[in-house]
Amino acid sequence: MKRNKQIDVTRALALAGTFNFLSCCARACLLPFLTLYFRQLGLTPAMTGLVVGTRHLITLVWSPVASLLSKRYNKRRVVIILALVCSPTVALVLQLIPPTDVQQTGTCNMSATRSGPTQSQDGNLLVSSVRPATLWTRTLPEVNTTVVSQPAVTFPAETSPDAESAHVVTNETSLSQREEGESHPQLSQENTSVVVNSSLAEPKNMLQTTVSVAAPVRNKRSKSAPGEGEVEDGRFDFLGSLKVMDPQHQLFFLILIIVSVWECTSAPLEWTADDGLHEYLDYADASDRYSSTRVWGLLGAACGVGGAGLLVSRLSCLIIDQTPRSTVHFYCYAGVAVLALPVAAYLPLYLNKKRDRANGLLKAVQLVRGSPRALLCAFTTLLVGVASSAVDNFLLWEMQDHGSSELHMGLSLALALLSQAAFPLLAGRVSKLLSPGRVLTVGAACLASQCFYYSFLWGPWAAAPAQVFSCFSGGALWWAVKVQCEDVATPGAERSVRRIYSSLSLHLGSGLGSFAGGFVVQRFGLRWLFRGVALGLMLWCVCLPLLQWKAPQQRRINYSRLLAADASEASDSESEQDRDWLDKAMEDDRGNNNYGRRVNH
């Protein structure tokens, strides 16, 4: 009776579902909008891709190592609580970093604004003005300008190649710049445009020299910092090397350092909690019910991204003490993480010292490598991770360029997560119509169609219809991966094999995709990134069925399930010999051995 009182499976599942809901909700309040915040600070697409890709690679390496260390020293609960406390604290440090050349107060009234400099038909650079609430400007060199009236033809803005992201300045920023002697074109309250003659300066060169021209604007801010002579000490060599860089590279390296520390503190959370809870349920002979807690993670992420987007869109451009409203995402992340602390304190955890997780991962790699179909599935998940990184990193940029606010972004992403959570309701019918290999192909094809659709957005809500297909591009694809894991894995190794696939897609594929996607956007633009990803996935979807047909199919008999099956499940039409197949096989084996002995004598 004492053991039954200690192991309460219902309570354990309730706590696990609540913890997954809160932890995923906390991350979703910030992580989907993080690249948008980097854009507001002034990072280029290539720099943004490097920062996000580094974060994925840190998670890929540090998550299993931290999980093994926490198990070895029996400090799982300590690691979980430290991750919930330290990761929001480090994330809040990002708000202390100033932007590069001009300040942006948030994406306010995006439907009435333009995302940055555009080009006219003759190649001239246009700096479009907007409503008085928000002004999009660039710090430009002193060149001859011409004011064009409203009938002048302008085109919708998009992220152009070799161009830095657009920035917003308020009237307060313009006043501070004029106090320092800066001369800027005065934009009236009405809609006007400033046309910079391309014969005086190339637009590309002009944008590249923006940081150096804006250096006087930052001199006033740098006066409050320690003097330049103080960096002569050897302990400040790295800081001194940062000071000799241009401000944009200073911003990049500071963000890279903070994001790396942030990921080191938050990466151990998922694996550590997952291992402890699964071993607890396995000790209670209820490990088959653990998969039900994953649905709560998707629902929590949907609530987090949708709620944060709705909350931020309701705020004014500037909140308390001239703070931009985009910082509310960080406070939402910290607040929900604090709510998860009491649940983490009572989260049921168990330490199974007999199970070696490192050997389990190595065995899972060997199982995947030994099956041709498992290798095809692994390569597909890797490509899906590369493609998903383009959507996760730059979809909000594309939506912002077409007038979307945080409300449109948050609700669109929430719709995608809800559609993924709803796929288990359709899994039974899909499994009757399509095999897991075909479902894998359909999921990759749906993701390719989504990426191709994203390259033709036209309005704030244009991305929402494509998010419904995440039910197949996300939910169906991972269902097919789960079935593949069960086919290739030996009893007890299913979770390790599934982690191999998730690491390939969510971390390795996303990291490589972030690196490549940032440079593609920098060189060709957002639209060609989505079109290139769609084309690559479609080509693989054509080759995948042919490769699956050529690959030998290896069927593994799971004897433990057959022996544990209840004899009552057999139909009445089956004969007694078919039901006692194991006894018959043993008798035949004994008969063959006796015959061999008689022949030898």
From TrEMBL:
Gene Ontology CC: membrane
Family annotation (SUPFAM superfamilies): MFS general substrate transporter
Highest taxon of the lineage: Eukaryota
Membrane topology: Multi-pass membrane protein
Assigned keywords, A-Z: Membrane, Transmembrane, Transmembrane helix
Pfam families membership: MFS_1_like
Region ranges (Disordered): 156-191, 570-601
Transmembrane region(s): 12-34, 46-66, 251-273, 294-316, 328-351, 372-395, 407-427, 462-481, 501-522, 528-547
Family: Belongs to the major facilitator superfamily. MFSD6 family.
The protein, known as: Major facilitator superfamily domain containing 6-like
